[in-house]
Backbone:
């Protein structure tokens, strides 16, 4: 194996340190303590873990955390009125409604109800449009984490070929926008892309955000490419014991690492960056709402 491992835990820890320093400065200079409200509807076990981690890390960074747990039977009207209250609450700088929502609740309508200035998940159409237009915006956390990892591995991306596999509004499309803004030449591939392997072999930067375990094989990788694996897939792991499972990415790690120059592991790559970027977005939102400038 030749590739360097891109350590998302380490980069995320450094980012959390930066966030904590910005929070402390904001409090000292302006008397502002940023607040993040996280809304969890229902009992999805994975969502409960994510929300608990977000709340803990928010407090560790010196910010206020407001948790709102609603039953799965909550009506859309009930959820929308909570969002309206959080929009109006000056102690709340960021609002995150944990997805997926239980069936019967329309995530698009709920996201559109969030004040774009507090939309720290970056999913409101206003923020998606601002990202597209190159105007400062709240950017979705996982794509922002990918950009930071790629910059940490490569520095300047000008002129590099990037291929992003997956075109979701949550990951693939914003990653493509961010890399375009960083002057890479970006191809956005998806399930209808012809000869995906040869498209991927063009990539100096390959981002896999598909949700299919190990589908990006070693022969998809250009020699020396930087590979970012966003996928989180739980697969059976009989080698660990009966009924056991493990997490794998969308990239066949060992095969890809033989050709790539740097690669993110799963777990421990993109995953840890997501919450760190959420914290960073919350500080950005707190500053912009008060007319304070945020460095790009
Ligand atoms: P979606 O299911 O919304 O999108 C998947 C994308 O992959 C689609 O654009 C789809 O194409 C494309 N795709 C599916 N099959 C193929 C194929 N055979 N060849 C090429 N493209 C294909 O997933 P998300 O974007 O939400 O998530 C992607 C992965 O990232 C998942 O594993 C998810 O768990 C993980 N994830 C990780 C996060 C983290 O913090 N690390 C956060 C968010 C997601 P089409 O549009 O044509 O259907």
Residues:
């Amino acid at each position: 194996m030749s590739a360097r491992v891109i350590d998302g835990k380490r980069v995320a820890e450094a980012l959390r340190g930066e966030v904590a320093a910005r929070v402390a400065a904001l409090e000292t200079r302006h008397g502002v303590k940023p607040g993040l409200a996280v809304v969890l509807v229902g009992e999805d076990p994975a969502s409960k873990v994510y929300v608990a981690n977000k709340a803990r890390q928010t407090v560790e960074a010196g910010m206020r955390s407001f948790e709102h747990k609603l039953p799965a039977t909550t009506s859309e009207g009930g959820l929308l009125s909570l969002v309206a209250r959080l929009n109006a609450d000056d102690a709340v700088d960021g609002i995150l409604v944990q997805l997926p929502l239980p069936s019967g609740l329309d995530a698009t309508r709920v996201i559109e109800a969030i004040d774009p200035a507090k939309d720290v998940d970056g999913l409101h159409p206003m923020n998606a449009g601002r990202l597209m237009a190159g105007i400062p915006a709240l950017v979705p956390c996982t794509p922002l984490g990918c950009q930071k990892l790629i910059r940490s591995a490569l520095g300047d991306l000008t002129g590099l070929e990037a291929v992003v596999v997956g075109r979701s509004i949550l990951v693939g499309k914003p990653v493509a926008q961010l890399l375009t803004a960083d002057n890479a030449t970006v191809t956005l591939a998806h399930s209808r892309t012809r000869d995906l392997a040869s498209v991927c072999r063009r990539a100096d930067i390959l981002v896999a955000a598909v949700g299919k375990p190990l589908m990006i094989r070693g022969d998809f990788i250009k020699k020396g490419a930087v590979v970012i694996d966003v996928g989180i897939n739980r697969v059976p792991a009989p080698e660990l014991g009966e009924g056991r499972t493990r997490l794998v990415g969308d990239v066949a790690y060992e095969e890809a690492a033989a050709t790539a120059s740097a690669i993110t592991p799963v777990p421990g790559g993109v995953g840890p960056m997501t919450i760190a970027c959420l914290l960073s977005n919350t500080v950005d939102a707190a500053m912009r709402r008060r007319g304070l400038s945020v460095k790009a």
Notes: The mean pLDDT is 97. Residues 142, 165-168, 170-172, 189-193, 196, 209-212, 230-233, 270-271, 274 surround NDP (CB under 6 Å).
